[in-house]
Design brief:
single chain; alpha/beta; Rossmann fold
Length: about 400
């Protein structure tokens, strides 16, 4: 089995990815013990994975987590911040939106939240409302610039500082950069590499948990530029394993989520892939709005290893409670939102944006799981770090 070169270059953990998964397909027949509801990939004795399968799991669990910036900066006073949520009906948008509000209020800014309602028209309307209201800073949570390019152009023309909140600027799609800055997650890691890494780590977990036999129902998020990147990272990694394959794919958009039709579409795709033993949901925020329930309702929950990307608090509850999700590539979403405010502060001050350190790790019931009721933070006290850097 051969493996194409990666571009990450972000430390020892990713060096492991190169070396380990060259042989991930030739792992022993002994299968990893599942946690929660997904136990079909376990051996009869429940023995843990060994060899390359265990190494793949170790890579997924290690992930890559940095630290918040320590270089001091002074938050300007009198700033009117608008936080545009991709859609308050899903946790993946609502949780970081609330954290961005908290961070803005911590530095004494006036904060307004606008619900984009999971569609580009709503996002554009929010951006234009912010412009009309005289916003000084806009943070779009989970929204790409190419999705609503014209409103962001109008914001730039109005002299408003726009900082990424989990999306990417228009230059990612070949256009002109319209934001003051993307949020830089990890030092030296481009946005595309960051999202490909998420997909790769999800694949690592499935390769390890199925001992190199993953037959995957893969969902692909088509609205965001980064959705394609995550899908590529995942499918490229699965392709390194001779015993693994994509059994079925299902493309979906925010419209499918907002209309409530996605769970049924997924159920149909799962029904049409009777030999599948694994599922990949790219966005954790959609899992809690019908997809985990669809896994349970299928009657195959015990036969599936289910992992999501972009995981947050509600996903952790599903994992803890045997609710149709077994693992997630967790992001410290609240930390990232505070990082967007840090990036905005530095942009307003004419300073260079700093890497925020808010990376990724795979979390399952037995690894990297925070205490019940606590968010995933990678065991980093990010709030204290930002407050120190900001002098508040």
């Amino acid at each position: 089995m051969s493996k194409s070169p990666r571009r990450y270059g972000i430390g020892a953990v990713l060096a492991l990815v190169f070396a380990i998964l060259l042989s991930a397909c030739s792992s022993p027949s002994e299968v990893a013990s599942g946690s929660g509801s997904s136990s079909a990939a376990s051996s009869a004795s429940g023995a843990p994975a060994s060899g390359a399968s265990q190494q793949a799991l170790d890579t997924a669990y290690e992930g890559e987590i940095g630290t918040p910036p320590s270089t001091p900066t002074t938050p300007p006073a009198g700033v009117d911040l608008w936080v545009v949520s991709c859609g308050e009906q899903v946790p993946g948008c609502a949780v970081p939106t609330a954290a961005a509000r908290e961070a803005g209020e911590t530095v004494g800014w006036t904060v307004n939240v606008c619900d984009g309602q999971l569609n580009p028209n709503g996002w554009g309307t929010c951006v234009r409302q912010a412009i009309s209201a005289g916003a000084k800073v806009i943070i779009p949570i989970g929204i790409d610039c190419p999705s609503v390019q014209q409103p962001f152009q109008e914001a730039k023309d109005a002299g408003i500082t726009v900082v990424g909140g989990g999306g990417v600027d228009c230059d990612a799609a070949g256009g002109q950069a319209l934001w003051a800055s993307n949020r830089i997650e990890l030092d030296g890691v481009a946005p595309q590499d960051y999202y490909e890494l998420m997909g790769q780590l999800a694949a690592d977990w499935l390769i390890g948990k199925t001992d190199g036999t993953a037959q995957v129902v893969q969902l692909n998020f088509t609205d965001a530029v980064w959705g394609k990147w995550m899908a590529t990272g995942f499918s490229d990694e699965i392709a390194t394993c001779d015993g693994c394959a994509i059994a079925a794919t299902l493309d979906y958009s925010n419209q499918d989520v907002g209309s409530g039709t996605l769970p049924q579409k997924f159920s149909t795709a799962l029904l049409q892939a009777p030999d599948a033993n694994a599922v990949f949901f790219p966005v954790g925020g959609i899992v809690n709005v019908g997809l985990a329930q669809a896994v349970v309702a299928s009657g195959r929950s015990a036969d599936l290893q289910v992992v999501s990307g972009l995981g947050g608090g509600p996903n952790l509850d599903l994992i803890r409670n045997d609710g149709g999700l077994d693992a997630t590539v967790a992001i410290p979403a609240e930390w990232g939102a505070w990082g967007s405010v840090d990036t905005a502060i530095r942009a307003l001050n004419g300073e260079e944006p700093q890497p925020q350190g808010s990376g990724v790790q795979v979390v399952d019931a037995d690894h990297n799981m925070p205490e019940t009721g606590q968010p995933f933070t990678g065991e980093v006290d990010y709030q204290a770090a930002y407050e120190k850097a900001w002098g508040v």
